[in-house]
Amino acid sequence: MRLVVIGNGMVGSRFVEDLLARDLAGKYDVTVIGAEGCEPYNRVLLSEVVAGRHDLTSLTLPTPQHPRLTVLRGTAAAAIDREDRVVTTTDGSRHRYDQLVLATGAEARIPPLAGLDAGDGRLPVGVHALRSIDDAREIIAATLNSRRAVVLGAGVLGIEAASGLAQRGCAVTIVHPADALMERQLDGSASSVLASAMPEVGIHPRIGVGAQAAIVADGRLSGIRLTDGDVVESDLLVVATGTIANAALAASAGLPCERGILVDDAAATADQRIFAIGDCAQPPSGAMGLVAQGWDQARELAERLTGTSSRSRPTGGSSDVVRVKAHGLDVVTMGVCGGLRPDDPSHRTLSLSDPAAGRHVEVVVSGERLVGATCIGAGQVAADLVAAYTRRTPVPRDPAHLLLTALAPVPVVSASPESLPDDATVCRCNGVTKAEIGQAHACGSRSVAEVAAATRATTGCGGCKAEVCDLLDWLGSRAPATATSP
Which of 109, 270, 429, 445 could form a disulfide with 440 if both were Cys (CB 3.0 to 4.6 A apart)? Predict the structure, then answer.
């Protein structure tokens, strides 16, 4: 059966890897059409590249070598003929399919800001989005001659980008028209604590004010005029105002689209031969914009198409844990959080806010379970809460003990490697358990890179790297005793 996949990014490449690993009967011949000319890479860590904590080569994701796989890089799909079941590419080649998977992702949203259109769809010199490897390269090059930068948008990506620019020596102003930073994850109190910590790491926040125009002279950015009349001088602007699903190809083929390509719970579109996964798809439950959700969709579709099923999902497979990767800004959220959350009478909310110490902790409890949390400047508490949330462990009789570990007579949830059960999830993006890392270690994986190659752990947001290191140290310390035991 001919299976064509349009998109060779994080989700498309993961789907192909999952499908071929499960297609033991040799049912599918797979052709991947990818617009970018490079190997698939971890887009989540691009802000880490800007900050200088990763190099571009470390972002590359593995591509399986398989006799039934053809990967066309640097080739864009131009049209889908649903009646003839053919995908035509921009070079004129035609690829027949029996089933088609759309993993076309999303592109950066550029706001309709006066001065941003330099003509022919080009941005003025000094203005960049951060969505691709090329974007990261251009931003890094721009920082060599830039000392003042503005970031539009203070969602997760915007804050990470601002941190990266500050790490490279730029004085950064982050502009956000909403009343709270990261308003999808933070309410006003949490936002205030985060905002108060930003100047210490070289970021000046402007909250509740938007950008009115980009000031451009001779095709080059010189500043940003804000809606309150202020002008922020800047020779570098990074736009982080969200994404737009790449659904034009599907829409042109007559598939129903709204914010993305409409799919059912099985990732199927209105055409039962065509599926959509990742950022381009709009499932009934909504899209979170997190890579873990896309990878879950890829795995589930691979299972459906091959008629297989993976091991049961490990304890802690939650995919809505958000960690901000920003130097000096410790932000972790999960589940029910933010100022837009529903008013549920079954939810009990407790918080501790200490702006002077740069600390804010809030927990949301329903019955005996932790259903949400917000942690700023409370690293160990955040680790314990993530463990409690993802493992769905009962909360203490007095939920106040969740706010600070020091308040509890015993640790609420110990995240030490020794105490973790074997089915505890260490890498939440990929659903990798302690037992799987232990098995990789037993088979010779000793470094984080070797564990990543064997299990995929750390290849998502990278937030579990420290936990993997701790687990490897613990496994290494046990090895001599294990080797000499009868």
Answer: 445
Q: How many residues does the chain have?
A: 486
Tell me how far apart the alpha carbons of residues 376 and 359 are, in angstroms, rounded to a whole number: 5
| Nearest residue to 174 (alpha-carbon basis) of 195, 192, 152 | 152
At 14, the amino acid letter reads R
Contact 174, 159 (CB under 8 A): yes
Question: Rg of the chain over CA atoms, in angstroms?
Answer: 23
Cβ 170 vs Cβ 142: under 8 Å: no
**Cβ within 8 Å of residue 202, ≥6 positions away:** 166, 170, 171, 172
DSSP state of 115: T
Alpha helices by DSSP H, listed for 263-321, are 291-306
| pLDDT tens-place string over residues 6-31 | 999 999 999 999 999 999 999 999 99
SS (H, E, C) 49-77: HHHCCCCHHHHECCCCCCCCEEEEECCCE
Any bridge partners for residue 237, and if so which?
127, 150
Starting at the edge strand found earlier in the chain, the sheet holding 322-323 runs 322-323, 331-335, 369-376, 359-366, 348-354
Tell me the mean pLDDT in the region 303-310.
89
Q: Using one digit for the tens of pLDDT, what is the confidence trace for 324-378?
A: 999 999 999 999 998 778 888 999 999 999 998 899 999 999 999 999 999 999 8
CA 470 to chain centre: 23
Task: List the 220-226 sheet strands across, edge first.
Answer: 211-217, 220-226, 231-233
Q: Under a CB-based contact definition with an 8 Å cutoff, are residues 232 and 242 in contact?
A: no
- Given a contact cutoff of 8 angstroms between Cβ atoms, the answer to whether 219 and 226 are in contact is no
Of 241-250, 400-409, 460-469, give the lowest mean pLDDT range: 400-409
DSSP string, 15-52: HHHHHHHH-TT---EEEEEESSSS--B-GGGHHHHHHT
CA-wise closest residue to 325 among 151, 140, 160: 160
Asked if 105 and 279 touch (Cβ cutoff 8 Å), the reply is yes
In angstroms, the CA 98 to CA 477 distance is 52
DSSP structural state of residue 144: T
Q: Which domains does the chain have, with CATH numbers?
A: 2-107+244-306 (3.50.50.60), 127-241 (3.50.50.60), 330-407 (3.30.390.30), 425-484 (1.10.10.1100)
91: tokens are: 């070079």
